[in-house]
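If you are new to this repository, start here. Below is one unmodified record pulled from the training split, so you can see the exact layout before writing a loader.
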Amino acid sequence: MLAYVLAPHEDAALKQLQQLLAPFAIERFYTDSWGAYLRLLEVQKHTVGKANTQRIERKHLTLRTRIKRLARKTICFSKSIWLHDVVIGLFINRYEFGRAV
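And here is the target side for that same chain:
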């Protein structure tokens, strides 16, 4: 009989990620079938598969394209983490929520 032994650090990593994401009130999780996801995420909020991958990746590409400072080889690159946070936050507020800032 073949058995997969689960390493305790797998569940710990997902729990840590959930704590970091808690302030954002995320309602859906789209993942692969990694064991920790299946054990720790609620069935109603968890979807296994790639059906929504394209939409998510499109948002990431738009973010990288429109915010030049995320690409290290551009002249707009900044070493300041604070400035990155400000610029990304402003972009997300305008692009995702339509808020004028």
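Two things worth knowing about this chain: The longest strand covers residues 29-31. The beta strands are 29-31, 46-48.
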